[in-house]
Amino acid sequence: MRIVALMIASFLSLGVAAAEPPRSPDYAAVQARLQRGWNSWDTNTVTGQVLLPYGLQIRLGLKKDSAENTNAFLPTALIGRKAAGEETVFPGPHAYDGSYTELRVKWRGIEVRLETAHVGDDLVMLVTPLSASARSPDTLGNAATRANTTFRSDAEATSQPPVAILSAAMIWNRPGNVAREGANIVARLPGAVVTIHAAGPEIDEVQVPVTGPYFAFRLDRPAAVSTGKPRNLGEITTLVATARAAFAARTSAAGASAEVRGAIETVLGWDTIYDPAGGRVMSPVSRIWNQNWGGYVLFDWDTFFAATMASLGNRDLAYANALEVLNEVSPAGFVPNFARGGGWKSWDRSEPPVGAITILGLYRRFHDRWLLEDSYDRLLKWNSWWPDNRGAGEYLTWGSDATRPPINPDDPSAGTLQGARYESGLDNSPMYDGVGFDGRQMQLADVGLMSLYIADCDALATIAGELGRTRDAVDLRARSDRYRRSLATLWDPVDHIYRNKDLRTGRLSEHLSPTNFYPLLANVPSPRAADQMIRGHLLNPAEFWGDRVIPSIARSNPAFKDQDYWRGRIWGPMNYLVWKGLGNYHTDLALAARRQLADRSLALFMGEWRSKGHVHENYSAVSADSDTVATTDWFYHWGALLGFIGSGVEQGNPIAPKQPSHR
Predict the structure, then answer these.
(1) Of 587, 591, 452, which is closest to residue 526 (Cα–Cα)?
(2) Contact assessment for residue 303 and residue 128, using Cβ atoms and an 8 Å cutoff
(3) Are 554 and 493 contacting, i.e. CB atoms less than 8 angstroms apart?
């Protein structure tokens, strides 16, 4: 049976919801290619493999078998759970297409490795119990060579071998019937039949809270299942080893950047899910975040950055991330701060405008004109929204407007200063401590916002030119020039840096953060002024420089010692945007600073990746251990931007060159 051929034929019969707005034929083809085959599509667990478009899942659960009063069952597993007694998942390689995945789960004294691989249209899953001596973190999957290691209990573990439950069921309310038929599990799907075979001795009559059919294996030895045809344990072990080697060979082709490319593919692979309500594949920030947001949450700039990272190895996934976050545009025309499962969005606020630079970057990498055509009108409307709704004289400010329905009753930040902080994306930054708020907007001219907006105008003007929208291009250049002139008034001629301005008092702010370097991204300062900023502030160890860079507030700021979220921690998107800005300048100082920033960012990323498999939402600026605060997700994809900029995979900026206008 050729499952893939049948998938395409039956795709429309499954009632998959269409995204809004309607997809172009080109983008529909992108999603159709993504929504095909076995992968870890279910946001609720990393130990399940789902066959798209059908919705058939094979999931691993673990049962702790005890002689007395301590039996327990782990039905799902996620990367980054932190509460006492919860599982720890060490993520190993995950190919974008699911052709090979590997992880290790440690829970209540039990530790197993789960590997999956594709064999044509078929899936094989191998569960290997790990001995106590094999339990050191091995985030890139080297432990996978110990395929025949057997379980040995330690002081924590049960006195009896644990049990692996490999169950099969239809999810997302998809049509189909799954039942035990003799020695096999058979799934009868619309237009296809999938037979699942066990490899290894089964246990009968195991008490577990699983409603569908399953295989149960005592984990004193490896166990496995395969689809399509029966395969013994030796065959499955060989197939998994072949897929593992293929992943390693493909990533190693990148040469010196092989390890970081594999890491970026892995984090995006584990964070990519299928949204059944929207009928779409996309990469939310992490599965932990999805759990509390109705199945998924898309944040504005986070998802655009996911598109940029995915462009290294998966064009379709890059396009899906960029276009799906654009598909969440509000009726007012802005891309919201968040869009979540159940249809709710942040109707009161947007987030940093990085959409046009992202789309133009993808176009310059892949040259698909249809991507520009699909995204342009929404990008243009969003660009126009900023001066119309966040203009304050000649400046732009962050805001939150709760006067337009619908009003979210569960969001007390709407129409408050905190809502405006959320629009900035820098939720608790000291830059906004004590700032005035008039009920809709901060009373602060913001250097970061204005710089990002100028870059957005320039990128969108270039896109307009590509599409022959000449009048739009002229208007966009005029908007860019207007805010370039305004940004020039925020230059501090004494300290040689752009500063935010209190619109109530006219005073320049004392707070400095990486956003004060974003004028480099907009190509606003002259080379001389850029060098002054770099020498006096970026490379100043009393402010931003050091082994761990770039802190989200200057080291000299009293709030730096808080090391709490945007109060001093290091963030991938800030490093990425400053790095891109430095790419606009070709002075010896700017080139050297860019290289050093890339090298130090990469070292920061790889340190935690190699030791723990963590890709942090934010990193400590003072400690080698970034786990020391609760306010960092351990597997949040934009942390991999630190590796992206250090891998040598992108040079320069996707914004059309423009002569610096200031100083």
Answers:
(1) 587
(2) no
(3) no
Res 146 pLDDT > 90 = no
pLDDT tens readout for residues 350-379: 999 999 999 999 999 999 999 999 999 999
- H helices of 327-469, in order, are 355-366, 369-390, 417-424, 447-466
What whole-number distance in Å separates Cα of residue 28 and Cα of residue 377? 18
With a threshold of 0.90, does the pTM exceed it? yes
Please tell me the distance from the alpha carbon of residue 364 to that of residue 479, in angstroms, as a whole number.
23
Band the pLDDT of 349: cuts 50, 70, 90: very high
Q: pLDDT per residue over 55-73, tens digit each?
A: 999 999 999 987 677 789 9
Asked if 296 contacts 274 with a C-beta cutoff of 8 angstroms, the reply is no
Mind spelling out the 3-state secondary structure of 135-166? CCCCCCCHHHHCCCCCCCCCCCCCCCCCEEEE
Enumerate residues 6+ apart whose C-beta is below 8 A from 493: none
Range 74-78, long-range pairs (CB < 8 A, 24+ positions): 74/105, 74/107, 74/108, 75/45, 75/209, 75/210, 76/44, 76/45, 76/47, 76/48, 77/45, 77/46, 77/47, 77/105, 77/107, 78/44, 78/45, 78/46, 78/287, 78/288, 78/291
Angstrom distance (rounded) from CA 54 to CA 60: 19
